[in-house]
Amino acid sequence: MLTEDVERLRAELEHSRQRRRKLRKQVDRLNRSLERAEQELVAASAQKRHDEAELDYVFILTYGRSGSTLLQGILSSTPGWLVRGENGDAMRPLFDFHRESVLMREARLEAEMRDTADPWFGMDEFPTAPSLRQIRELALATILRPEPGCRVVGFKEIRWWQHDDLPQYLDFFRDVFPGARFVVNTRRLEDVAKSKWWARLPDPIAELSKHEERILAAHEHLGDSSHHVRYDDYVSDPRTLEPLFEWLGESYDDRTVRSVLQRRHSY
Questions:
Q1: Residue 194 and residue 187: Cα distance in Å, rounded?
Q2: Beta strands in 88-179 (DSSP E)
């Protein structure tokens, strides 16, 4: 009888231990969830403040193996700047959504699709301004993620050349990000073509020439909103970047730029 009582107590004790461990895990998960929620709330508040403060936006237009990661580092070394890396052209689906919605609205403005029996019911009232504002807020919260103290945010991307409608795509950027500016970065194509990325192509120089032509045409389209720099120039003489900094309204710090140049970058 005593043995049975001991075994029963032992089993109850083990059950209590297991339950305690399970509860401890649940508490840990809840604490982590609470911590994440608090972090997201702080981040959302910070992003809202940044958006309301009208951040400045700068984007790097280039192609692969052009030295754009180095330029990204140089710009981000400026106090108050945060230029993030490429994101796989994440803004493109948002452009397609907005453009198609606007086109559909314009095609049906005269019809006034307010009848629920109509297959395009409501598209005549697609709100352009709220769409652009929400896209900006989404990009700020997910792609750009400005940090405290940021004045200028942006990113570099190497996939611009993929789009036949690049001028329209860039106009969309200017609509989403008020006052957006663009830095076009090019490099001697013979050197770019030596990278494994491009060398596998039958004629890398010809292919790269088409990409660069599209980028430079976009530079012309953007007018005063764009500035062209050449990798070969600023790695030979960093001071060739002084006009870029002047155009951006920033002070050129030769010591800081040279310190960035001394670091290994992916280019």
A1: 12
A2: 152-157
3-state SS record for the chain = CHHHHHHHHHHHHHHHHHHHHHHHHHHHHHHHHHHHHHHHHHHHHHHHHHHHCCCEEEEEECCCCCCHHHHHHHHHCCCCEEEECCCCCCCHHHHHHHHHHHHHHHHCCCCCCCCCCCCCCCHHHCCHHHHHHHHHHHHHHHHHCCCCCCCEEEEEECCHHHCCCHHHHHHHHHHHCCCCEEEEEECCHHHHCCCHHHHCCCCHHHHHHHHHHHHHHHHHHHHHHEEEEEHHHHHHCHHHHHHHHHHHCCCCCHHHHHHHHCCCCCC
Asked if pLDDT for residue 155 goes beyond 60, the answer is yes
pLDDT in tens, 202-215: 898 999 999 999 99
Cα dihedral 200, 203, 207, 213, rounded to 10, equals 140
Q: Name the band, by pLDDT with cuts 50, 70 and 90, for residue 144.
A: very high
* DSSP letter (8 states) at residue 125: G
> What's the pTM?
0.78
pLDDT higher than 90, residue 171: yes
The amino acid that residue 1 corresponds to is M
**What per-residue confidence (pLDDT) applies to 33?**
59
- Burial class from Cβ neighbours inside 10 Å (0-12, 13-18, 19+) for residue 53 reads exposed
| Cα(196)–Cα(199) distance, integer angstroms | 5
